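Risk register update: the risk of archive-format incompatibility is retired. Evidence:
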Amino acid sequence: MTLKSPCSQTEKRKAQMEIQNKEIAETLRHIKNKILVMSGKGGVGKSSIAAYLSVALAKKGFKVGLMDVDLHGPSIPRILGLKGSLRHGSHERKMLPVRYLPNMEVISIETGSDFN
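Archived output:
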């Protein structure tokens, strides 16, 4: 059995993160407007504001993507009443968003693979 040195594992992880950061930057470059809803305190309504703002913008005709990355309490799927499985993308370990309205898609880390 061959053990990888911690140095080579660290270098591999850094290379993976660099590739991922480039992919994210390239994707975000195509998005004209980005709105971030955040707070240093829990329980202040961040998810509600994000969900309602997204729905309002979508209903006004804007193309909207809502990404829920709340690690401690993702609730966007529950707020929007989403059910069903996330779909796997063409690349390994990538998920596709779920369509909520004709011009609004949602992705959440709530369960990793399902909105339940």
